[in-house]
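Quick question: what would this complex look like in 3D?
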Amino acid sequence: MNEQIIGYPQLGVAALLVLVDAGLSLAFNLGIARSLLVAACRTVVQLLLVGLVLRYVFALSAPTLVVAVALAMTAAASFEIYARQVRRLRGFWGFTVGAGATGLATVLVTSLALATLQPSPWYKPEVVIPLVGIVLGSVMNGVSVSLNAFNTGIVRERASIEARLSLGAPASLAFRPLQQSALRSGMIPIINQMSAAGLITLPGMMTGQILAGMPPFEAAKYQIFVLLLLAGGAGLGALCAVQVAMRRLTDDRERLRVDRITDDGGRP
Amino acid sequence: MIKIRGLQRLSLGPIDLEVGDGECVSIMGRSGSGKSILLRMIADLDPHAGDALLDDAPCSSMAASRWRSMVTYVAAESGWWAERVADHFAAASVARDILPAIGFPAGALDWPVARLSTGERQRFAILRALQPSTRVLLLDEPTSGLDTASIGMVEALLHDQLARGTSILLVTHDGEQALRMAKRRFLVDDGRLVEDRP
């Protein structure tokens, strides 16, 4: 494989496109130049730093270090999920529901992938860390979108949920339409990604492997494997998060407990 | 008979009340005095102290869903969860027979919820609460958005339910309606329920 296909000059050419976008934003007074440039700088700095750290982790190849990196990545994803919630469960649960669902789904899906791929040793950082990273990204999206849709929907749909409860419906039935729509929202990105794969877009990982010299058919098999893992992870994480949030927003008398959710802090 | 024993939440209560089978009591009081909270406590929709008993069976001793299928709360602003009116009824065939009595044509159950007016929503919300299991109706301003003719039809329907033995707790701001519907009338005042004697 040609590992030198991307050098700093090539990165510079790609960066020009972002600069053009920022320039257009300034010219038409669209107000996105600053956030676009900050995000682009973050991408460059974060990915280069990760590249340096991973070089060190790969060289040491110690299981505790691999687990520590995976835990740090999960913690960062959990904070992202927490930060993206317009309404959160109050107290301890606000962070724990998203973090727990993310951790559980990521561990299960990554373990299944490792059991299938059987790297030697099992903690081989070149396999474990990229796997955790890509699974975590998908789980994080599924959990944060579903949880946000559920938590905001609870307040919006309060009248319809309580109407069903008032007529004698169990909480599981009263919450079902909202649960379904929240899960659908969380799963749409990965469903779109799978539906479009190959026909409309070449997924990023497969594109990278082909550019790096891997035969397309082999790259396709890797991509299929990863996409199926991502779909499984996103679904599992979203389901866990919404189910636990639903439990938390009812009580032993099957009431809707909107007092256990924060207000939206004036956010749209 | 429904008995309310020491119901209390926030600054409301403790409240005691007994309403016999086929009896309607009205509850009035200024906005924010706690009338809706009282009905919601009886339906066990909000956490509270105290208990309610239906024929001496405490609410706390049975599943909440069973209690609410017998002691049914109808909110002032009704909620809807499906597109068609009929999908909100446990037994649409039973409701179809009562439609003309509250001013709806026979096909009204097939209407989309989105096109209902406020008054139509209120009438359908009362109608869907009339389940075979319902023993007590907790009605929160059930006719506040209705014209005089519709109010008359809803009151006639409620009188029919009273004649069948259903108990009704009626929250209203309409003093005339309270006189027409209820023999005993109450006021929520300063967190207490007091009988309004002429």
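Answer marked as accepted. DSSP finds nine helices and no strands in chain A.
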